[in-house]
Each structure stands twice: as structure tokens, then as C-alpha cells.
Write a structure and sequence with these properties.
The protein has 147 residues and is an alpha+beta fold. It has helices spanning 4-19, 80-96, and strands at residues 27-28, 42-55, 61-75, 107-118, 125-139, 142-146. It has two helices and six strands; from the N terminus they run αβββαβββ. Strands 1, 2, 3, 4, 5 and 6 form a six-stranded mixed beta sheet that branches. A hairpin with a 6-residue loop joins β4 and β5 (125-139). The protein is elongated and about 55 Å long. The two termini are 15 Å apart.
């Protein structure tokens, strides 16, 4: 089995692959993916920072909040803002419809969106970084099982 954080990340990749039709199944579960012009539009999903706190009522539990980063990339055209917003709609709705991340989490809630443009690549790229705060619990001695 894997850390619950990994299970959450993999579930979100699966949900986005099934529901974000605008990227044609180009959802990658890593931040280290070299995207070419032919790969766009695409999404990468990865875990950012995580905070945890000890809960001592009953079984010693670690209450956790992991930031799941969902980056959407599109070719930068005159409509790139509209393109990333359209993909963001599908991302937000897909994750909202799996609010407990298939029972692995207490909640998955969008906490921020950052839209950028980069002209440094071979092809200018527009992107949106959507950060979801995912709250989940594990026993302190079993981080592979969600509580």
C-alpha cells in the first residue's frame, strides 16, 4: 500500500482524466513532466506542502492538510485566459463531485488559483495553478490507511 497522500494524488489524477475532457486524457501525476507543444493542453497533479497536528482523543491520530497542486497548461493564444478558465471549470467541478476523494479525505476544497503566461518556451504557454486543500486523518502509526 502507499501513503494516503499518494493515494489522494492518484485518485485526483484518475478523476481528472475521466472528467476534464478539454485535455484529452493528458493528466500527469507528477510535477516533473516535459510538456511539448503536441502535449498541450495538459494537466499535472502533485502534492505541495502538508501540515499535520496530533489529535489525542481515542487513537492517536494525525490530522493532516495537504496542498494538492493542479496545473493546467495551454498554448498561449489571444484566448488563453478563456482556455485556462474553461479547463479550470472542469477541474473544479470534477474535484467538487469527489469531495471526499473517494473516502480518503474529509474534504477537498479549492483554496487558490493563480493564472500565468510564459513566453520563455519554444511555444508561449498559459497556465493556471489550482491549489486544493485536502483534509485527511491517519493513525500516527499507520499512514497508509485513511481514518
Amino acid at each position: 500500500m502507499a501513503h494516503v497522500r499518494q493515494q489522494i494524488r492518484e485518485r485526483i489524477v484518475s478523476v481528472l482524466n475521466s472528467n476534464v475532457t478539454l485535455v484529452s486524457n493528458r493528466v500527469y501525476g507528477t510535477r516533473v513532466y516535459s510538456l511539448t507543444d503536441a502535449d498541450l493542453p495538459a494537466i499535472t497533479v502533485y502534492a505541495g506542502s502538508e501540515a499535520s497536528a496530533l489529535q489525542t482523543i481515542g487513537v492517536k491520530t494525525s490530522a493532516r492538510v495537504v496542498s494538492i497542486e493542479v496545473d493546467a497548461y495551454v498554448r498561449a493564444t489571444t484566448n488563453f485566459d478563456n482556455d485556462v478558465d474553461a479547463i479550470a471549470v472542469q477541474i473544479e467541478e470534477a474535484i467538487a463531485n469527489d469531495f471526499s476523494v473517494n473516502g480518503l479525505a474529509k474534504s477537498a476544497v479549492l483554496s487558490s488559483t493563480d493564472i500565468n503566461f510564459s513566453g520563455e518556451a519554444e511555444q508561449p504557454i498559459g497556465s493556471a495553478k489550482l491549489t486544493f486543500d485536502v483534509r485527511y486523518d491517519t493513525a500516527i502509526d499507520d499512514v497508509e490507511t485513511a481514518r
